[in-house]
Fold this sequence. Notes:
This protein has a two-stranded antiparallel ribbon with strand order 1-2. The radius of gyration is 22 Å and the shape is elongated. It is an all-alpha fold. 66% of the residues lie in helices and 2% in strands.
Amino acid sequence: MSVAPPPVEKTSVADRVAGALRTAILGGHLQPGDSLPSERELAEKYEVNRSSVREAMKRLDAWGLVKIRHGGATRVSDFLLSASLDLLPFLVEVDGPVEPSVLRDLHEIRAMLLGWCAEQAAVKADAVSVARLDALARRLAASHGRPAESQELDYDFFEALVQITGNRPLLLFANVVRGVYLRGRQRFLGLYAREVFDPGLHRRAVDAIRARDPQAAGAAMRQHAATALAATGGENAAR
């Protein structure tokens, strides 16, 4: 006697509806303060039952994208004021071209993190940590001309720097930033073309960290990050 698998349709349908509305909100098609269509209208639009729409609304509310008012209209929230970092990957992955200012903002954050982490590494890194950075710098130099490999190793280098700092909130934040870059890696692959990417900056950073020179280590990593900023028109922010 076979046992039927547990039902999954309701969850998957609710996720689909929530995902579609999330994309519309993050993409600017629904603005803060806008009223969402009624439960009945959404059920008809997405050809689902109303219980699935209710589940989707709960997801949107948990993400900080809408404010549910019982007995009143559900309105779009200003997600920049109410949402968490969990939405960051979806902000980059919305359908169609990503707004250049969003990518520029991401690169600015990464530039700040890279510079500060390199400075901290020059103060805190032990011999094992320096050896790991050195090995990554060597692999980066060897990967020059293979953008996908350079990209992955660059993020490994960034992760190693963050780990050296020992800053736990920063470790969690860096996980989000890394996820954004790697989930949307095709958007950033051009930054690792042979004529753009300079692995020598990672070597300079490692040498400075070994020499306990925070200023030089931070400068090398900020110069590396300036490549991405220049590509999005924000090169002055790295200086």
